[in-house]
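[job 0412] stage=complex_fold ligand=magnesium ion status=START
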Amino acid sequence: MQDLRKLELTYLPGIGPNRAKMLSQELNINSWHDLLYYFPYKHIDRSRLYMISELTADMPFVQVKGQILSFEEAGAGRKKHLIAHFTDGSMLMDLVWFNGISYIRKAYKLHTDYIVFGRPNVFNGRINITHPDMDPANTLVLSKMSMQPYYSTTEKMKKAGLTSRSLEHFTSTLFTKLQDPFPETLPDYLIERLHLMSLDKALRLAHYPSTAMELSHATMRLKFEELFYIQLSILRYSRERQAKRHGYRFEKVGDTFNNFYYHHLPFQLTGAQKRVIKEMRMDMNSGRQMNRLLQGDVGSGKTLVALMTMLLALDNGFQSCIMAPTEILAEQHLETFRSFLGDMPVRVELLTGTVKGKRRQAILDGLRDGTVNILVGTHAIIEDNVAFHRLGFAVIDEQHRFGVAQRARLWKKSPVPPHVLVMTATPIPRTLAMTLYGDLDVSVIDELPPGRKPVKTIHTYDNKPEILYQGIQQEIEAGHQVYFVFPLVKESEKLALKNVEEEFVHLQQVFPHYRLSMVHGQMKPADKDAEMLKFVSGETQILVATTVIEVGVNVPNASVMVIQNAERFGLSQLHQLRGRVGRGAKQSYCILVTGYELARDTRRRIQIMTETNDGFEIAEEDLKLRGPGDLEGTQQSGVAFDLKLANLARDGQLVQLARDTAASILDADPQQNLPENQILWNRLNYLNQKDEDWSQIS
Ligand code: ADP
Ligand code: MG
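[job 0412] stage=complex_fold status=DONE, emitting structure tokens
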């Protein structure tokens, strides 16, 4: 069979240049291949006729065979509509049109059999169908209709007369043109072992199944294939890299580490922290480069784990660095590190965009001659003029702001790539982690330090602020601090900003005896930092802010997080914000303030927040509610993937199966030279042709 990607749409009867252009612009369908892989979003069983007397308003789509007895025009102006009184002999119902009235009157004949298709409603005690599909009864063969495919279209397409029906026409023409079987893309032994449908059958049945069972077998085969090639690609790449990439060996646990552990650490490590440090020690002594993702809920003590691993590096003669997404966070890390280390002879320096002149030069010199042991900073670290004497370990904090490309720049700071730890407080469900970070090993801190009281989360409506203010007053009187957070919506940034500023003035009036700070994204970084520091140092008691405080700021004395318009935030974001409190030993609160009317999904989000503090549970729920769509695949994983059928949230088990299958194939055929697997490597090459050459990065 020829390459369907090279066959233009206009070669298909029914598609001229205009329609081809529309399909390309609206649905990104550019070839026969694209059309073949444009799957219906649903199918409706059209093999059965209903009697009008059977219909109820809660039925989905139904079809009825009968005749129009008469037309009637009703209403006036914009409410004007056309009613056709329709009967199948058992009863009467109304067919209703609000537009195209004169066309409809001309197109449909009285006393002629039609098959009417639509969703039944009840209005004034009568059954009706609005804007039904109508086909002359003699043109439809019901036994052949069975499961009718429905394809998504856009408004623009509909206006141009390109409907789901048109697409149905195109795909069915496509299949009649392509009678030869589509060549198989999976090895026979896999198809047999996993009881998969052949590709040929699956492609045809995904569009035109005759039963729901056939449809689900077909979809399962296609979903598996999508996920399988992604996993195979990721795993093959990471194994190749592992085999090639040598890493420094950190052989000993030396004096600095031990001195810190036994004499400076003010508390016991949690079991999870110990386990993760051990995992990293093993990695770092394996002779291979470590690439590890550390997941841990906010406040679980990741930063300390990073610091202790840096001391291991130091004991083995290496420098370390940690890269944070903002200056504030970098400064906090510096503070934290210095206070943990106390008088230990470890030189920690800060490098950000605002460190300039002599100070900067001194740090750059210290990095080059090796006297700086640990460098804390922002993006400034990866600039070309920053050179290390011997960089052995690099930590990237709150990774979601760093893509693979930036990671890659770190690699280059050292002749042998440094060990890398990526830390994230955004817990990623396993199935997603496996796909997005398929080339990283994953460690998890699943235990909070002892003595933490879980944050109590309360939902209130915005019409009774007095009670809220009273509670806040009590907390401040008890010596605690309070966050007030407002959403900042991109479309109306000005408006949201006004809200924050107005609210700031309002809260100053409500709390005249306290000092307030305000931060938002439109402030100059220096002003923002100054305001933030006032709150961090305890000079102000209330911080009014937009989500700029979302990431990682640590003020253990803050005990209340008020989130205004909580309905505007996603689950993960709410959880991140909540993580700003509950960092000390006292009871903390998160107050979610919303309007009274809430959409179902929103109510669910708020409910989940009040029910659990478990970041992983929340991430799973979030993935279910939102879908993984906005987790830019390419940027994070370096692997371009475009899932047409599979859904990382819903198809977790298939992801696992795809992963295990890919791993077992690579185990059995490490040289990739078994004849039965040739089909796989050929297919991977074919799939990767259109992608960027991501194997060069990271
Ligand atoms: P994360 O970076 O995971 O959000 P941090 O490392 O900032 O968490 O830790 C949050 C707070 O908990 C810090 O004040 C830290 O000193 C403290 N902490 C970390 N580990 C422990 C522990 N094992 N026991 C008690 N407190 C801890
Ligand atoms: Mg942190």
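Residues 351 and 377 are 5 Å apart (CA to CA).
[job 0412] exit 0
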